Give the backbone structure.
Amino acid sequence: MSADVVIALDVGGTTVKCGLVTPAGEVKHAERHATGADRGPDAVVETVLTAAEKLAATASAAGLTPRAVGIVVPSVIDEAAGVAVWSANLGFRDVPLRDLAEARLGLPAALGHDVRAGAVAEARLGAARGTRHVLFMAIGTGIAAGHVVDGRAHAGAHGAAGEIGHIVVRPGGARCGCGARGCLEAVASAAAVGRRYAELAGSAATAAQVAELAGQGDPVAGQVWRETVDALADGLITGQALLDVEVIVLGGGLAEAGEALLAPLRDGIRERITFHREPRLLRAALGDEAGCLGAALLAADIVDRADIVDRKVDTP
């Protein structure tokens, strides 16, 4: 018996995580491919479309019916037009990826931002399931966020909402990749933690190693970790003042530190709270599957809308 699935693709700078997912979020098939960003944007687009095409064939061979395609990328996205406006990681500039996917597969497609899609997945299926107002923040090489209300992410007027990593928390501080100084991303991303430790200790360490060393009482690592937590608390209290969410979910590599990060960060937020309501602070539940599941939810929303229209048309 045939069953509906959607084709989901999370296109990262290194890996394309993709699969076949039911509209309810059950993964029926998953696979990964090298993005090959060094080959140029046209080659990346072809990799994505070929992977989607093969997933459609895999679905049909398994007796599954692909209904739609969801693609998410690390880019400024014009969601209404289905265009990846700009992506440093992928070299995209004004790539009409939604239309290209629809033409190639003959299926409706949706294009979204990877972190916003991950936010939707955590809000609907993950750590914040059942919560109306959610802020999801991914802390990895960079820092980005997604604001979700009633299961829907807000992209902003120009597709660039959620850039919490570029809130200036340390005026005049370290230079950020965006050109400003003292951005949260320049101070508290996983990459920044490693750089700061190397600067003070004279030896290299990853953010995970810095967290471990801090837990073991290493004084330099302890200083770096405290600086990181303080900066994150400043960034998140700004986010809470603007958005007034019920739950903040932390994902990405730095969140792998678990309570070593969450416990002092809760204290830091609590110290800064005045009249705002203190949000619950949770670790992401979906790991690196969040983006792919978020892509599936974007596609499933297309199916839902189409089904609603069909029902209205069929109603006498």
Remarks:
- The chain has two domains: 3-114, 127-285.
- The two ends are 29 Å apart (CA to CA).
- The mean pLDDT is 93.
